[in-house]
Amino acid sequence: MTALAMLWTDIRILLVDTTRIWWRLLPKILTIYVLGWLGYEVCFKLAEIAGDLTAWLSLVIFAIAFVSRLAALVLILRMVGNALGVRHLIPKEEQEDDDRDAGVTRLLALTLLPFLGIYTAFGLIQDASSQLVIESDFRSGGIWGNQGILGQIRLNGADVPARRYVLVLAIIVGTYILRRGLDLVHERTGFRPLGIVVAFIEAFFVLVTITFGYDLLARIPLWLKDRQFMVWISDVRHAVGNLIALTGINPDVFFAGIGSFISNQVWPVITSGLTQPIFWLAIAALVYGSSVISVAELWRRGRPLASRVRLARRALERAARQEAAGGQQHGGEHHETTGARLVAEIREAFFGDIDDKYLPTLHSLRLVLRAGFTFLGAYVVVYSAQAVGSSIWSWALNQTIGGHPMTFWMVFLPAQDFVTSLPFEPWRLCLLAVALRRCLMIFRLRAESRGTANLEVGAVEAAREVAAADLGSRGTPVPETAGVR
Amino acid sequence: MIIALACVVVAGIGVNVTQNISGEVIRTGDIHQSLRLDNAIVRVTDVRTGTAMAGQTDDDRYKTGGMILAVTLRVEAPGTKYTVGGDDGVSVQAGGRTYAAFGPNTSITAEAGFASTGDLLFEVDPNHIAGAYLELYRSEFIHVTPQKVHIRLGITQQNAAQWVAAAKGRTLQVGSASSEPLG
After folding, report:
1. Virtual CA dihedral for A57, A71, A26, B15, nearest 10 degrees?
2. How close B102 comes to chain A (CA, Å)?
3. Strand B25-29 and strand B147-152: pairing?
4. pLDDT 10s per residue in chain A (485 long)?
5. Rounded (10°) angle between helices A124-139 and A55-84
6. Which of B136, B128, B66, B13 is nearest to A264 (CA)?
7. CA A62 → CA A42, A57, A143, A276, distances in Å?
């Protein structure tokens, strides 16, 4: 089969399957989507009003708004994935109990943190925060009126008092400690609503850090400009420019041209055409559990991941702690030292986020990138086609509604955003699920053709060894019957 | 791999181009045509050219090495008070250039229930006036999709030279804006 024929096959599969599943589940998808949108808009308006009382309350409510939107997204992905049978692709022996199927709150608690990380990376939280500032400024009569939501706590501008820096840092550190503490309690007790509270706090933490972090980071270039090494870099650039001038080329035009080409032509093409679709596919894999990622890796390479993602190991560790606690109560031996446990807890407190948020995302990203160029090309084309369609729809809607002053948009902008996103966002989520399923099918077919598809026993053994080694390092033995089935 | 790269490039270009589609909504009209702009109605009633201007005081006298375009604009405010112009809300676009208003009238305000008429002056390059149009919109510090109006001034590639010739040595008399109640 030629490469073009394979490309067309993948494009056709993605388009047809996505449209079919989207049409079949449309009422349920729309219901969840509308509820998520409603929760977001209500919280957004409440955040604006709360800004008149205190900026911090406003940011907390806005964090809840984001959780509402992301919760709808996660639920839609799970529903579509279940309808497609994504998890049924995984052999029963490989399915790990990390409670994704145990309830909605548990699913949200497990998946919201990685999603917020990616939303931050794409600047979506920053965009929404800016929108909050703009609407708040409009409510307060423009920037010359009373201070908006963030006016009293921004770090930009002249004459920022030192105590404001201290206040901001204290809030950021305090929020982080609070979240880690609640996360620990959540892990120990398994009390599901705590997972949602943790997600709310995480969203608030991200909002605060992003909003104020930008102000701090904006000062770094100004500080760097006065450093001596910047003069050295400038001298090197000048020397290179002189060399280029010897060839008859204007060095300033040369450097400006290169910079302009990269920033205006190459970089937008890469981010629009490649990184966004790939990242969204990678994080969609998180909804279906770490076992999806691990087994796909197993099929792809013939052996499991060297280290299972932490989300799966937590189930083992929780069971191990409960077993150890039960053993102690009945007079069993206790091998754990206080110092080892303290080190483990500190490590968990400071580096747990890496396991929770970034490692699973990196694993799934790596997996998606190895699905093959043909599949990636087809997926990127289909994803971008829906993005183009969405932009054209938005333009057509704008032309229909017409231009209006800001007083009009303050009332109708939420409705316009809703109508703009409604035709395409649910379809995009269905595409993520279909693409992930196609990805898994490709790995499975390749593994079957290589004869490495049925390595369940080896995979199970490797997983237990990894988990046992990790728990053993903390002085707590792995119970024989916990975790992987 | 080449096919995948081509897909990425095509997809990226497509997304990038469509994302940059202007969100502006523009109404286009001609001289003597009434156009709605937000809650007001605007109409260009006259276009004159010259190389000097004279107003009511000596400070209003001015001579240019280029050309002065005087656009007589009528603004009707049937509902609420409306102001056209100010910092950004009025300009002449011609030959890829944007010309801001200057002189005694850089904005025209019509009170509620009144129509105001005034001359807006623009100093332009006579070599690049073909296709010139007047752009009007309400300039807001925060905006989403403002309404814009483009009014063609009747200067085309064929008659641009005649407009320039007619402007030579001509002094434009400019007064302040006048108001009258709407019927």
Report:
1. 80
2. 25
3. parallel
4. 577 888 888 899 999 999 999 999 999 999 999 999 999 999 988 888 887 777 778 878 888 888 888 889 888 998 998 898 877 766 555 555 555 555 666 666 666 666 776 776 677 777 777 777 777 777 666 544 444 455 555 666 666 777 777 877 888 888 888 888 887 887 788 777 777 787 788 777 776 776 676 677 767 777 777 777 778 888 888 888 788 778 877 877 877 888 887 877 777 777 777 778 888 887 787 777 655 555 556 555 554 444 444 444 554 455 455 555 555 544 444 455 666 666 666 665 555 555 555 566 666 667 777 778 888 889 989 999 998 999 899 888 888 888 877 778 878 888 888 898 899 999 999 999 999 888 888 877 777 776 655 544 444 444 444 444 444 444 444 333 333 22
5. 140
6. B13
7. 10, 9, 21, 24
Residues B25, A391: C-beta atoms closer than 8 Å: no
Return the DSSP state at B57. Answer: S
The one-letter code for the residue type at A122 is F
Sign of CA dihedral A32, A37, A40, A42: negative
- CB-CB neighbors (< 8 A) of A377 in chain B: 3-8
CATH topology of domain B25-173: Immunoglobulin-like (2.60.40)
* pTM for this model (two decimals): 0.73
φ, ψ of residue B110 to 5 degrees: the values are -110, 125
Structure-block tokens of residue B175: 């007064």
List the single residue in B3, B16, B18 with the smallest CB-CB distance to A377.
B3
Task: Flag whether residue B143 sits within 8 Å of chain A, measured between CB atoms.
Answer: yes
Tokens of A80: 């579509």
The H-or-E segment that residue B178 falls in is strand B178-181
Cβ–Cβ contact A145 with B under 8 A: no
Q: Nearest CA to A60 among A189, A162, A178?
A: A178
Cα(B85)–Cα(B24) distance, integer angstroms = 18
Which 8-state DSSP code applies to residue B136? E
Cα–Cα distances in angstroms (integers) from residue A209 to residues A112, A170, A171, in the given order: 17, 11, 9
State ipTM. Answer: 0.73
Distance CA A385, CA A236 (A): 44
